[in-house]
Backbone:
């Protein structure tokens, strides 16, 4: 009843305040980087647990088998926060569809890079909006803004966090439907 609605609204408000605080930390250079060894598979297992209930009747899949027992040095918490923002966005703009999260560590110019992709079967993004998608307070379709609960900070925050780690965040529309976000972060292999 009323108590459930108050609890849900409180959680939504707290998430928005935390997103704003997180974003302001990065733009004012107050965010610290906490590099530490991380079992990448564990990071994705915790993400899987976070999304156990799904959203909007979507199926969410995690494909990170190639990461079994792979230990890298990175700021795992910033990567997780970025991925949560991206996955939340994909789930929000996809109805009765599928979101697939893939991850691997590749060697690019003899340097290890963590590459994650988040692919959805939603409506895709207007090509004219892609350039500003990572700007603060921007949503891909402002006519949908009222039906979607975000304030336009999630992707801007993810972009800032990944940049802080020396990585990149990009997006492209898929052939047919939906879009795919690509997160690339340099990591060190833990020997």
Residues:
């Amino acid at each position: 009843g009323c108590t459930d609605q108050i609890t849900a609204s409180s959680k939504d408000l707290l998430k928005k305040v935390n997103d704003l605080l997180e974003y302001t930390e990065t733009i004012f250079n107050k965010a610290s980087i906490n590099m530490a060894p991380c079992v990448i598979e564990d990071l994705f297992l915790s993400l899987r647990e976070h999304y156990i209930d799904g959203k909007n009747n979507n199926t969410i899949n995690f494909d990170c088998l190639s990461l079994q027992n792979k230990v890298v040095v990175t700021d795992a918490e910033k990567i997780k926060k970025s991925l949560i923002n991206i996955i939340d966005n994909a789930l929000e703009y996809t109805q009765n569809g599928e979101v697939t999260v893939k991850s691997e560590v590749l060697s690019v110019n003899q340097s290890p890079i963590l590459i994650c992709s988040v692919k959805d079967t939603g409506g895709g993004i207007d090509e004219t909006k892609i350039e500003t998608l990572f700007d603060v307070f921007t949503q891909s379709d402002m006519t949908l803004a009222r039906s979607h609960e975000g304030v336009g900070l999630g992707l801007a925050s993810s972009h800032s966090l990944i940049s802080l780690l020396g990585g990149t965040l990009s997006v492209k529309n898929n052939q047919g439907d939906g879009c795919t976000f690509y997160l690339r972060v340099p990591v060190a292999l833990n020997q």
